[in-house]
Amino acid sequence: MTVTRNDPCPCGSGRKYKHCCLARQAAAPTELSAALWRRVRRELDGFPDRMLRFVLDAYGDGAFDEAWAAFGASAQDWPDFDPATELAPVFLPWMYHAWSPDPAATAVADPTLHGVPPTRAWLARKGRHADRELVRYLEGCLRERFGFHEVMDCDPGVGLVARSLWDDSSAKVLEASASHSLAVGDMIYGQLVPVGDFRMMEACASRVFRPADRAEAIGLVRRLVAHRAERPPDADRDALRDTEDRAVRRHLLDVLERMDRPTELRNTDGDLLAPQTLHFRIASPRDAFAALSVLDVIGAERSRQLAPRPGGDPGDFEIGFDWSCRGNAIGAGWDNTVLGRFEIVGHSLSLDVNSDERAALGRELVEKALGAQVEYLRTQRRPTPAPRGGAQVTLSTTALDADTPEAARQAVADMLEKHYANWPDMPLPALGGRTPLQAVAEPTGRAMVAALVDQIERGSGKGGPTLAGAVIERLRARLGL
């Protein structure tokens, strides 16, 4: 029986054939391809150093500063060139193959080099003595655009299948080292150069981008392509391509800068995360519990037994209860929200909260409820987690009235299932305010939604609650992905 691209894969993975073994077979190099790859790699061994010397000799010492300024022309506060920059694996190939001295503003003295990329100048002066496969490769470097690529399949140590966001074309890439750190759904920025029936990775940014970053990049590239289609036939295509490349490069720099910023952690009220504990002295533990337990609107406070502290005063006891409310500011599928946690131990009262706003409100409620029977002592602040990435992440402390860890895990799973059942109908900033169901109606939105779903699937189970595979499958089914 013939298996078509959209049939279930015969290996039993549950994925479509085109996304499983077909893609893996396409990534496997033939013996001829492997031999050609080795030949080109031999010719490229040491070539970047020779190219560097050629640029310095032919274009002058100032070429690096000029090219670096052009590379970051659209970025704010662009620093001086640093040879140790993490952008070197992308910038140097870009300078060789894509940059050329601007005739109107350059220190390059030789007028024959104005508007000529260094690789083209090298081929003109030295190409006749070079290996023909190296010449073909460098000519490919002059033609191929730098841009974003989605990893469609990966065979660590061998290569990958990458899809260009510029034109949706997929290609087999032979690359032993980078393929070890890549996974399906990742996005890379660089230049993939055709050699025979495969491509080689001439340039690649040192960082790998998440599926959610891919959604942003898809939106940008599709807008650029649509703008190009609206231009008159006699428009300067080279100038338009340069503008597009600069916009994509600016997006690269923005994403890299964002990855270095601290992630903005907020609670479900939208407050910046600031974990802290307020400490009070209370006159009567029993009266304090009676006055404050009403703030736990979802707890079973009437069933709590006030157990005296062993060996303590008969009027003393210890108990903990939540400060909670019905509903949730961001989760339509969530029934409640935990705002804080009270602990009474003898004549000591503490309130644990995760923001300055909740701390101020909590203190106000305590002092209003207990009046002269309470004395505020101090606030003990705790370190706030500081992950990098520059995103805004909302952490839920929704109450789980569960007696066992397993019951708590099931409650979280149920809550997440409700959330993602509603997710297709939620307007999302990443989709320009559209809902996923609205966005999948057109190709660009569909690709962006697919990237966001990939991110949801990848993000589940990493240090947090695991999202069941069935939930992801139902989400994809509802969205037609």
Describe the structure.
The protein is α+β, with helices and mostly antiparallel strands and 481 residues long. Helices cover 40% and strands 17% of the residues. It has 15 helices and twelve strands. The chain has helices at residues 21-27, 31-44, 47-59, 63-71, 88-97, 118-126, 132-143, 211-230, 237-260, 285-292, 356-370, 405-422, 436-439, 443-459, 469-479, and strands at 147-155, 159-164, 170-174, 187-195, 198-204, 264-267, 276-282, 318-326, 336-345, 348-353, 374-381, 392-395. The strands form three sheets. Strands 1-2-3-5-4 form a five-stranded mixed β-barrel, surrounded by six helices. Strands 8-9-10-7-11 form a five-stranded antiparallel sheet, with helices on one face. The protein has a two-stranded parallel ribbon with strand order 6-12. The protein is elongated. The model is unreliable at 389-393, 397-403 and 460-465 (pLDDT under 50).
